[in-house]
Amino acid sequence: MFLMNCFRKASIGLAFLPYLLVILHLAQVTPVDARWQCMPHFDDQVGQQTAICWVSEQKKVLCQKNSCVPFYNQNRPFGSLTFVGCENSKAGKTGVTVSNIRNYHHYPNGDEQNGHKGYVAVFDGISKLWYNCAYDGYPDNMNVYICSSCK
After folding, report:
1. What DSSP letter does each residue of the chain carry, written as one string?
2. Where in the sequence is the signal peptide annotated (predicted)?
3. In degrees rounded to 5, what are phi and psi of residue 12?
Protein backbone atom coordinates (compact mmCIF):
# COMPACT_ATOMS: atom_id res chain seq x y z
CA MET A 1 0.00 0.00 0.00
CA PHE A 2 2.83 2.37 0.87
CA LEU A 3 4.41 1.74 -2.51
CA MET A 4 1.15 2.57 -4.33
CA ASN A 5 0.82 5.92 -2.48
CA CYS A 6 4.36 6.92 -3.51
CA PHE A 7 3.66 6.23 -7.20
CA ARG A 8 0.39 8.17 -7.07
CA LYS A 9 2.10 11.25 -5.56
CA ALA A 10 4.87 11.06 -8.14
CA SER A 11 2.41 10.80 -11.02
CA ILE A 12 0.54 13.90 -9.84
CA GLY A 13 3.81 15.85 -9.84
CA LEU A 14 4.73 14.55 -13.29
CA ALA A 15 1.32 15.57 -14.62
CA PHE A 16 2.10 19.22 -13.81
CA LEU A 17 5.57 19.13 -15.38
CA PRO A 18 4.43 20.09 -18.93
CA TYR A 19 2.53 23.09 -17.55
CA LEU A 20 5.60 24.21 -15.64
CA LEU A 21 7.75 23.96 -18.78
CA VAL A 22 5.27 26.01 -20.81
CA ILE A 23 5.08 28.72 -18.14
CA LEU A 24 8.86 28.95 -17.87
CA HIS A 25 9.23 29.12 -21.65
CA LEU A 26 6.62 31.88 -22.00
CA ALA A 27 8.45 33.96 -19.41
CA GLN A 28 11.46 34.10 -21.75
CA VAL A 29 9.58 35.03 -24.91
CA THR A 30 8.89 38.69 -25.70
CA PRO A 31 5.33 39.33 -26.83
CA VAL A 32 4.99 40.23 -30.51
CA ASP A 33 3.26 43.53 -29.78
CA ALA A 34 5.67 44.65 -27.03
CA ARG A 35 6.65 48.30 -27.03
CA TRP A 36 10.04 49.33 -25.71
CA GLN A 37 10.61 52.79 -24.27
CA CYS A 38 14.11 53.92 -25.25
CA MET A 39 15.04 55.53 -21.97
CA PRO A 40 17.74 56.50 -21.05
CA HIS A 41 19.52 56.15 -24.42
CA PHE A 42 18.92 55.74 -28.15
CA ASP A 43 21.69 55.09 -30.67
CA ASP A 44 20.93 55.27 -34.39
CA GLN A 45 23.04 53.02 -36.60
CA VAL A 46 23.76 55.15 -39.65
CA GLY A 47 23.19 53.39 -42.97
CA GLN A 48 21.26 50.54 -41.36
CA GLN A 49 17.57 49.89 -40.81
CA THR A 50 18.13 49.26 -37.09
CA ALA A 51 18.88 51.30 -33.98
CA ILE A 52 19.87 50.42 -30.44
CA CYS A 53 17.21 51.17 -27.85
CA TRP A 54 18.45 51.23 -24.26
CA VAL A 55 15.58 50.32 -21.94
CA SER A 56 17.78 50.62 -18.83
CA GLU A 57 21.43 51.38 -18.10
CA GLN A 58 22.24 47.67 -18.53
CA LYS A 59 19.70 46.39 -21.08
CA LYS A 60 19.52 47.27 -24.76
CA VAL A 61 17.48 45.89 -27.65
CA LEU A 62 17.96 46.13 -31.41
CA CYS A 63 14.95 47.73 -33.12
CA GLN A 64 13.76 48.42 -36.64
CA LYS A 65 13.87 52.22 -37.02
CA ASN A 66 10.54 52.33 -38.84
CA SER A 67 8.89 50.83 -35.72
CA CYS A 68 10.07 53.73 -33.52
CA VAL A 69 7.90 56.79 -32.87
CA PRO A 70 8.17 59.73 -30.44
CA PHE A 71 6.42 58.96 -27.15
CA TYR A 72 4.62 62.34 -26.97
CA ASN A 73 3.60 62.31 -30.67
CA GLN A 74 2.97 58.67 -31.54
CA ASN A 75 1.25 59.56 -34.81
CA ARG A 76 4.54 60.98 -36.15
CA PRO A 77 7.19 58.78 -37.82
CA PHE A 78 10.76 57.94 -36.88
CA GLY A 79 13.02 60.94 -37.40
CA SER A 80 10.49 63.50 -36.16
CA LEU A 81 11.88 63.77 -32.63
CA THR A 82 12.87 67.39 -31.90
CA PHE A 83 14.58 69.07 -28.93
CA VAL A 84 14.56 72.84 -28.36
CA GLY A 85 16.55 75.43 -26.41
CA CYS A 86 19.73 73.39 -26.78
CA GLU A 87 23.29 74.57 -26.30
CA ASN A 88 26.83 73.62 -27.17
CA SER A 89 29.09 75.83 -25.05
CA LYS A 90 32.29 74.80 -26.87
CA ALA A 91 30.85 75.87 -30.24
CA GLY A 92 29.25 78.97 -28.69
CA LYS A 93 25.74 77.95 -29.76
CA THR A 94 22.64 78.53 -27.64
CA GLY A 95 18.90 78.32 -28.23
CA VAL A 96 19.36 75.72 -30.97
CA THR A 97 16.54 73.43 -32.14
CA VAL A 98 17.89 69.98 -32.95
CA SER A 99 15.66 67.89 -35.20
CA ASN A 100 18.02 65.49 -36.97
CA ILE A 101 18.64 63.31 -33.91
CA ARG A 102 21.02 60.39 -34.32
CA ASN A 103 21.66 59.68 -30.65
CA TYR A 104 20.31 60.86 -27.34
CA HIS A 105 21.24 60.26 -23.73
CA HIS A 106 18.88 61.40 -20.97
CA TYR A 107 20.24 62.60 -17.64
CA PRO A 108 17.12 63.20 -15.52
CA ASN A 109 19.17 63.94 -12.39
CA GLY A 110 21.38 66.40 -14.21
CA ASP A 111 25.09 66.99 -13.98
CA GLU A 112 26.26 68.68 -10.78
CA GLN A 113 29.75 69.24 -12.17
CA ASN A 114 28.52 71.49 -14.99
CA GLY A 115 25.57 72.93 -13.09
CA HIS A 116 22.93 71.25 -15.27
CA LYS A 117 19.65 70.09 -13.83
CA GLY A 118 17.77 67.42 -15.79
CA TYR A 119 18.70 67.43 -19.48
CA VAL A 120 19.13 65.33 -22.60
CA ALA A 121 22.37 65.22 -24.60
CA VAL A 122 21.59 64.89 -28.32
CA PHE A 123 23.80 64.34 -31.35
CA ASP A 124 22.80 66.33 -34.41
CA GLY A 125 23.43 64.27 -37.53
CA ILE A 126 23.82 67.36 -39.75
CA SER A 127 26.18 69.57 -37.73
CA LYS A 128 27.89 66.53 -36.12
CA LEU A 129 27.74 68.32 -32.76
CA TRP A 130 26.46 67.23 -29.37
CA TYR A 131 23.98 69.57 -27.67
CA ASN A 132 22.65 69.69 -24.13
CA CYS A 133 18.92 70.40 -23.98
CA ALA A 134 17.54 71.31 -20.54
CA TYR A 135 14.25 69.95 -19.24
CA ASP A 136 13.51 73.26 -17.44
CA GLY A 137 11.03 75.25 -19.47
CA TYR A 138 10.97 72.64 -22.24
CA PRO A 139 8.94 69.61 -21.14
CA ASP A 140 9.11 68.15 -24.67
CA ASN A 141 12.85 67.70 -24.12
CA MET A 142 11.91 64.69 -21.97
CA ASN A 143 10.56 62.95 -25.08
CA VAL A 144 11.89 59.50 -26.05
CA TYR A 145 11.35 56.97 -28.80
CA ILE A 146 9.15 53.95 -28.26
CA CYS A 147 9.78 51.02 -30.57
CA SER A 148 7.73 47.92 -31.29
CA SER A 149 9.80 45.71 -33.60
CA CYS A 150 12.77 44.80 -31.41
CA LYS A 151 14.81 41.80 -30.44
Report:
1. -HHHHHHHHHHHHHHHHHHHHHHHHHHHSPPTT--EE--SEEEE-TTSSEEEEESSSS-EEEEEGGGEEESS-TTSPTT---EEEEEETTTTEEEEEE-SEEEEEEETT-BGGGTB-SEEEEEETTTTEEEEEESTT-GGGG--EEESSB-
2. 1-34
3. -65, -45
Q: Within a 10 A sphere around the Cβ of 11, how many other Cβ atoms?
A: 9
Span of 25-34, 44-53, 109-118, 124-133 with lowest mean pLDDT: 25-34
| Region for 115 from its dihedrals, namely left if φ exceeds 0, alpha if ψ lies in -120 to 50, beta otherwise | left
Give dist(CA 105, CA 133) in Å, integer.
10
